[in-house]
Specification:
alpha+beta
């Protein structure tokens, strides 16, 4: 079955949800309690059928994930010249960098505190917080551009799974 990467990711989520539901039903219907002298209430649970259904779903998920993985290793993201897989790693790195800059931007260039014994203590940043904020703006634009390029690649690249 041919599908774009985004459809593949959606299909994986749907299959995982279906498996979760089967397991939920199994956990609730695989045992019955009854009192001595009462008849056991029948359920429509079947151990072998459940194992088979889960195995089929797992196999389908594996096939889709494998095809998606191969695509992520070979398909190139426009404007960046790197594969989707590399772009995903790069996106995580850029987001980590942005988080660090966000922390640095929160400090004042110079701050003053009074210690418990009344001594004035100064803390000075060894960088310019305003420059960090400007760098964050540039980085944010780059992150957005990369995310859009990844999304576009996931919609325009197809796998056979």
């Amino acid at each position: 079955m041919k599908m774009c990467n985004s459809e593949a990711m959606k299909a994986i989520k749907e299959l995982e949800e279906k498996k979760k539901n089967i397991i939920y039903i199994e956990n609730n219907r695989s045992r019955v309690s009854y009192k001595e002298g009462e008849k056991r209430v029948p359920t429509n649970y079947g151990y072998a059928e459940t194992r088979k259904a889960i195995a089929e779903i797992d196999g389908r998920i594996r096939a889709i994930k494998h095809a998606l993985s191969v695509c992520n290793c070979t398909a190139v993201v426009d404007d960046f010249g790197i594969t989707i897989g590399e772009a995903l790693v790069y996106l995580a790195q850029l987001n980590a960098e942005y988080d660090q800059l966000d922390k640095l931007s929160a400090y004042n260039k110079l701050s003053r505190t009074i210690t418990y014994n009344g001594v004035t203590e100064y803390t000075e940043c060894l960088y310019e917080p305003d420059e960090v904020i400007k760098e964050m703006e540039v980085l944010h634009k780059k992150i957005c551009k990369l995310q859009v390029a990844i999304d576009r690649a996931n919609l325009t690249n197809f796998i056979e799974a």
